[in-house]
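In keeping with the milestone schedule agreed at the kick-off meeting, the structural modelling team has produced records for the first pair of proteins. Each record is given below as a sequence line and a structure-token line. The laboratory manager (R.T.) confirmed that both were archived under the project's standard naming scheme.
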Amino acid sequence: MAHDQLSIDVRPEEGGATVFKLRGTLDIATAPTLRAALSQAQETKKNVVVDLTQIEFLDSTGLGALIGAHRRASERDGSLRLIVNEGPILRLLAITGLIRALPVYHSVGDALGDQARVTVSP
């Protein structure tokens, strides 16, 4: 996959949540595509899970798309939950402080059940 490509696989999950499985790069070139897809899904679904475990690179524009989707979900009494592995994306969320603002989990099952939220010690 080229550095400026993003693959988005969307599937409904039990409990009414929609899961977005992302692969590739989430940056200034691809964030508008994700922003539009999340916005469209949030028109009909309250709860969205975004799986970032196969994201190779995430920049501030990608973070902005996720923050905007989180804000829209909160305004509609819904949720946006992120799935991450140990590694650079988790470190980025910790360094920026977003790990405290956005619900982060290690698996889709944990996110759907709102269990075992990832925290990072200061």
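The second protein of the pair:
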Amino acid sequence: MKGKCNVRILSSIDKMLLTGVLCAFAAASQAQAPNPLDNVPEKMPNDIPYGAPIALDRAEKALDAALAESQKRSWKLVCAIVDSGANLVALKRMDGAQLASITIAVDKARASVQFRRETKALEAGIQAGNNYLLSLNGVVASRGGVPLMDGGKMIGAIGCSGGTGAQDEVVAKAGIAALSQ
């Protein structure tokens, strides 16, 4: 049979199902909750000015204090200091610290400078469901990267790795405390 055409007429049940599906799609698209990331703050967050790069002697002072804290607690860590341009200034690795921590410590310090905040904030953001952070280059969402400040300006950051994030953070903050003495 040439030119045979199968035409099906929608039954009233088919029409009701199709209408129901279309209504469900329309309702679902309108029922989406507002995205909290669409809020526009008046001030720019973390608008910390960059300062002159940290000097080597100050970087070594912070590293020595950080590693002294680590040694006191019998934690084997690596700590790194980067300057305000995220360039490595100094790094120290304790005997027995895992090799991966060399790169991780530097990455934590760089992330802290580049995003002008502690890496703990990036960790908290991802844990809160802000998964877009994972798409940003250089994000390290683990504690232990902390900015180094002088006169309200960021002069660099310290990054520590080898323990838990909380241990890394404690050691990094011990290094920072030494700079204010």
